[in-house]
Amino acid sequence: MPVSKTERLLNLLAFLLNTPQPVTLAEITEKVEGYRGACTKASATRCFERDKAELSAMGISIEYVSGDSFNPAAYFLDRSRYFMPVISMTEDERLLLAVAVRLARSQGSSECSDHLFWAIQKLVFDRPYLGQSGPEPKEPPVEEKSDAGRLSLLCALARAAALRSSVTFLYFGIGSNRARRRKVHPYGLATYRGAWYLSGLCAETEGIRTFKVNRIRGAVRVGKADSFEIPADFRVGNHIGPGVWSSSERGRREEVTVAFSPTVAWMVARELEDCRSWTLDDGWVAFRFSSYDRGMLFRWLLGLSPFVRVMAPADFSEGFKSCLARIAARYEKNT
Fold it and tell me: Given CA atoms 131, 135, 141, 143 in this order, what sign does their dihedral have?
């Protein structure tokens, strides 16, 4: 039975909203019911263009990403315009939610406690996917924890931060590829893209470090209350989340200009809130923005190579090129 126009439009929207990266026209016409099986490629293309125009008239704009030497041209929907925004909560509010979850479960199973438990869990853990600024490093499988185990761990960390108690735990580090014991003064907990992070003073490095909670192995040992003071100028948002290098509290401000391939420019535009952008002759998109932590920005850009060209300042550009050359040389040496 032929697919109706309404069904085809809904199929197209569902496909684009459930695909986190841009997709080519060939993928759309091959995978979306309604285009698949069209008489010719040209007729499927004309049908897609008509549907795209009709959706645009409804206020639903399908974005176009021009191709480059790495990837063909593609289309995507800006998911952030079609989902509820990320809920922003203070550290105290997160702590209260974690405690409420624990209390809801401790009351035993009843219709009220079950509804409360699942409602709060959804509020705390569910986050819309906004794309990745770079690929996650590969690591051994994360230690599986039950919902109760995960909540217990978060409650222990939240309680330690609230009572200013030091915590000791085994932490799997990506760089070392092994678990090491860490003693931390927990300053705050926060979520970013669906994952929980702990930020605090690490006794081993004597500096503020951020730990991904699902890399904590085993139980957490909590020390005595009031064993440290949280610095008055500490802000958890300066250490957890996108663009921590853009916080004015991290250091000296400098203007940075970076060009990105069209392959990733659409994602970068989401991360950079306050910037100026323009398209270069080769199709790459240049962004000018402020940075207060060159080291953090450097690591973020490395995660997006080879789709990055640092244009200014000159010394930053040369340092970035030099680092990429060293990485390439080490890779060639080991292969």
Answer: negative
As beta bridge partners, residue 211 has 198
Distance of alpha carbon 270 from the chain centroid: 11
Non-local CB neighbours of 40 within 8 Å, separated by 6+ positions: none
Q: What domains lie within the chain, and their CATH numbers?
A: 5-81 (1.10.10), 91-235 (no CATH), 244-333 (no CATH)
Q: Is the pTM of this model over 0.85?
A: no
With helix as H, strand as E and coil as C, how does the chain read? CCCCHHHHHHHHHHHHHCCCCCECHHHHHHHCCCCCCCCCHHHHHHHHHHHHHHHHHCCCCCEEECCCCCCCCEEECCHHHCCCCCCCCCHHHHHHHHHHHHHHHHCCCCHHHHHHHHHHHHHHHCCCCCCCCCCCCCCCCCCCCCHHHHHHHHHHHHHHHHHCCCEEEEEEECCCCEEEEEEEEEEEEEEECCEEEEEEEECCCCEEEEEEHHHEEEEEEECCCCCCCCCCCCCHHHCCCCCHHHCCCCCCCEEEEEEECHHHHHHHHHHCCCEEEEECCCCCEEEEEEECCHHHHHHHHHCCCCCEEEEECHHHHHHHHHHHHHHHHHHHHCC
pLDDT tens for each residue of 30-82: 888 888 766 688 888 888 899 988 888 887 888 888 877 777 888 888 766 66
Over residues 79-123, the pLDDT tens digits come to: 666 665 666 666 666 666 666 666 665 655 566 666 665 666 555
Residue ranges of the chain whose pLDDT lies below 70: 1-2, 37-39, 79-149, 174-177, 191-194, 237, 241-251, 270-271, 273, 331, 333-335
What's the number of CA atoms in the CB half-sphere (13 Å) around residue 307? 22
Rounded distance, CA 215 to CA 57, Å? Answer: 46
Q: Tell me how far apart the alpha carbons of residues 204 and 116 are, in angstroms, rounded to a whole number.
A: 40
Both tokens assigned to 230? 């949280």
